[in-house]
Design goal:
By secondary structure, the protein is of the alpha+beta class. The protein folds into three domains: about 1-40, no CATH class; about 45-110, no CATH class; about 115-155, no CATH class. It is built from six helices and five strands, in the order αβββαααααββ. It has a three-stranded antiparallel sheet with strand order 1-2-3. The protein has a two-stranded antiparallel sheet with strand order 4-5. A hairpin with a 2-residue loop joins strand 4 and strand 5 (about 150). The chain is elongated, with a radius of gyration of 19 Å. The protein starts with a helix and ends in a 6-residue tail after the last strand. The relative contact order is 0.11.
Length: about 160
């Protein structure tokens, strides 16, 4: 999602990168803070892999119009090639039977969960913000530590 589209609608962007764009943003509505994440930082490797065939099935059943994009930065070249080959076949002759030929087992064994510490950091910062709000403390939640990771400040 684009930052300008979100800020125009009243959202505050928490994190983003040049390569992937916005990945977390918030919006306060009345007394509630709604937190949104692109992707699923709570997912482990197995859950990430399980979701891929589900999205492809929805496309092959014509329940979604666009072919699902490949998760970036997770797969090695071999697994990326496997998914790209499947995409080519699925787009040329879409059928649910084609999905049975997609084996993600080699891809599963090679994925390392590199996003876990970032996900924990986000959650701990949000909990800290909630504690500050409930305690009536005003100000900024700064540098919450999770493991060895160190955050940048999040302002409300």
């Amino acid at each position: 999602m684009r930052e300008d589209a979100l800020t125009t609608c009243g959202y505050d962007v928490l994190t983003q990168s040049a390569e992937y764009g916005v990945d977390s943003f918030v919006k306060k509505k009345k007394r509630s803070l709604f937190v949104h994440f692109q992707g699923h930082p709570e997912y482990g490797v197995a859950t990430l892999i399980e979701g891929i065939p589900q999205r492809h099935k929805r496309f092959l059943r014509h329940e979604r119009e666009t072919y699902p994009s490949m998760p970036l930065g997770y797969f090695d070249p071999e697994a990326t090639r496997l998914l790209a080959d499947f995409q080519e076949k699925a787009l040329s002759s879409p059928s649910e039977e084609a999905l049975n030929k997609l084996s993600l087992c080699p891809a599963c064994r090679k994925i390392k969960n590199t996003w876990h510490s970032s996900a924990n950091l986000h959650v701990s910062q949000l909990v800290a913000i909630c504690v500050i709000e409930k305690g009536g403390v005003s100000g900024v939640c700064r540098h919450t530590r999770v493991g060895s990771a160190r955050s940048r400040s999040i302002t409300r």
